[in-house]
């Protein structure tokens, strides 16, 4: 979560700590206590714990970041450019200044003009891009004395748009209507992931027309009209984050969060849908799983004392087979449609750089060390994980080389 997703009393103004992921702290139980001691519903910090650890570890290179200030998409030559000699197969969507941009071939395209778009995911055919957009609403809760405490809410909306931009369609709107507008309420929603049949896995506290207790993995129907909650174990109140489907749709991978002093206890879990069983994958401290198109590998962000790095694991054993980075300043992996490249983010001053790692697999079955390039001359939003779709959407007239 970022500051844009906070829920706070109107008279208070808080700025989220610098962060590369969705992880700002929602109101605490103290924030949600009325002056006479009556406690209202506590907001779940489900995806927060692993993320806040990431933030603290990466803070050395992100101390100047303010996510409330959009990143510039301009440069002295008149606009962002693709690095000379780099050609992107398919389409990589990323954030810049809170808007969604994409790079395909050797050209860029701005897909939205909003300043609150994040949580990107492609449909499996690459035709539709899904995102979560936030808007400000005023709502509130009853206090113990019968008065209403007003809150400024950042309401999430899950939407989809064409791979070329436009044709925006709301799939799920997160505003929960109260008995009157002053009592409207909202919750949290993160990490949409698309199955081949259109079902959408999300980490959310929404459950139908109301809100549950924790942010956990739930499944939306393709049109957003129905929501179900699979029987997944979680540690309250830390919940889940980062859901992703297996390529064949038989399983959902997600991160189960927890809390350990000084370290991350978050770990990747595989949920077998048919058997309704779960399996732990790899060691603790792994978040943001991305499954390769052939299902053989899991790219993930590893949390360590050094910071955060991108690694590739065996999807069956969880063994780390290749360290894409070792700097402690990288996160947010996304596979190319061919499975031969990874996109990920790395710290770039107070912002982030988009990187592409190309690698091959040796006869021994172990991935070879990658060749890494930076495809964009300008930085990107550090709190928006890139998403790589299969459709080529290169503009008809592409940007000239810098």
What attributes characterize this protein structure?
disordered N terminus, 4% helix, mainly beta, five-stranded antiparallel beta sheet, single chain, four-stranded antiparallel beta sheet, 402 residues
Describe the protein's architecture and organization:
It is a single chain. This protein is 4% helix and 42% strand. A hairpin with a 5-residue loop joins strand 13 and strand 14 (251-256). The radius of gyration is 20 Å and the shape is globular. It has one domain (3-389): TolB, C-terminal domain (Neuraminidase), CATH 2.120.10. The protein has 1 helix and 25 strands. Strands 1, 5, 6, 7 and 8 form a 5-stranded antiparallel sheet that branches. Strands 4-3-2-25 form a 4-stranded antiparallel sheet, with no helix packed on it. The two termini are 35 Å apart. Mean pLDDT is 82; it is low at 1-46 and 55-80. It is mainly beta.
